[in-house]
Amino acid sequence: MTSPSQERQVKSSPVKDKSKAVKSKSKKTSQERQVNKSKSKRDNSQRRQVQAIQVKETSPTTVCYMISALGITAGAHRLWCHRSYKASLPLRIFLGVANSMAFQNDIFEWARDHRVHHKYSESDADPHNAKRGFFFSHIGWLLVRKHPDVIEKGRKLDLKDLTSDSVVRFQRKFYKPSVVVMCFLVPTLVPWYFWGESLLVSYFVPSLLRYTLVLNATWLVNSAAHMWGNRPYDKHINPRENRFVALSALGEGFHNYHHTFPYDYATSEFGCRVNLTTFFIDSMCFLGLASDPKRVSRELIQTRIQRTGDGTHRG
C-alpha cells in the first residue's frame, strides 16, 4: 500500500513535468528568437553592404557615362560638327575633356567624318553607310579601311572652323595622353580614392563597362536609328525616329528630324523630351556659358511634315 505522501508525490509529478516542458520550450523559443535576430542583423548588414557597393559602383559609372556622352552629343556633334549653338571657352574646354573621356576619335576627325556622313548619307562616301548592313554601320566601319570615296570627299570639305578652334587643336595634339588620363585613369582612380572602391572594380565598371556602353549608344545612332522607326519628316531618307536610341544616346535618336534639319541644336522637334543633351545646352545658355542656339520654326516643320512625311507624326 502507498502512503498519502507518496500519493501526493505521484499526483504532483505530471505537473512538474509539464512545468519543465514549458520552461524548456520557452528557452528554445528565446534561443530561436535570438538566432533569428542575429540572422536578420546579418542579413540587414549584408544588404547594406550590397547597397553600399551598388552606390559605389553606379554613382561614378553614371557620372562618367553622362560626361563622356555629352562630350560626343553636345560637343563633337552639336557644337563642333553642326555649329548649332555657340559655347564659351570654359564650356568648350569641358566638352573637349569630356570628348577625350569618350575616346571616339578626336573632335576634328569625328566632326569631319560626321559632316561627310550628312553630305553623302548612305552612299560609298558615307563612313558608316547603313545600306551595307547593321554590323557595318554599327562597328564594322571601324574595323576596315575607309572607302576611297570617304577620304576623297572628306578632303574637299571646308574645315577651317575646326582648325581655327584652339580647343580642337590642343585636343588633337595631345589626344593620346588625354584619352589615357580621362577615359581610363580618372574613372578608375576617382571611385577608388573617394568611394573606397577596389581598383579592380573601378577599372572594370566605371572605366571599361562605361566606355563600352557609351560606344554602343553612339554606334546605335549610325545603325539602329537608320533602320528601325518612323519617318514623320522625310520618308525619302533612311534615318528614323528611334526612342530607345534617343534614351541611350541622350537625345540623339530623333534621327529623321536631325537629318531633315541638321542645324537645329535640339535635334528634335520636342525640345528636352527624352533629350538630356538639349537640357544640358539649355542649362548652359541659362548660365551664360552658351548662346545662339539655332532652332527650326514651327511653320517650317509643319510644312515639311505635310510635304515629305510618312504620315506618322504625332504632335
Provide a compact summary of the structure:
This protein is mostly helical.
What would you say this structure looks like, in words?
- This protein has 315 residues and is mainly α.
- The chain has one domain (60-308).
- Helix content is 66%, strand content 1%.
- It is built from 13 helices and two strands, in the order αβαααααααααααβα.
- It has a two-stranded antiparallel sheet with strand order 1-2.
Number of helices: 13
Distance between the termini: 106 Å
- What structural class should be given to the helix and strand makeup? mainly alpha
Q: Please count the beta strands (DSSP E, at least 2 residues each).
A: 2
Domain module count? 1
Shape from CA axes?
globular
Task: List low-confidence stretches.
Answer: 4-12
Fraction in beta strands: under 5%
Secondary-structure element pattern, one letter each: HEHHHHHHHHHHHEH
- The helix content is 55-70%
Q: Give the overall pLDDT as a whole number.
A: 88
Rg (CA only): 32 Å
Please list the strands of the largest sheet in the order they lie side by side: 1-2
Q: What can be said about the biggest beta sheet?
A: 2 strands, antiparallel
Which descriptors would you attach to this protein?
single chain, 2 strands, 315 residues, mainly alpha, 1% strand, 13 helices
What are the SSEs and their pairings?
Elements: H1 4-81, E1 86-87, H2 89-102, H3 107-119, H4 134-138, H5 148-156, H6 160-163, H7 166-173, H8 175-194, H9 199-222, H10 243-248, H11 255-260, H12 276-286, E2 290-291, H13 298-308
Antiparallel strand pairs: 1-2
EC number: 1.14.19.1
GO biological process, one term: monounsaturated fatty acid biosynthetic process
Membrane topology: Multi-pass membrane protein
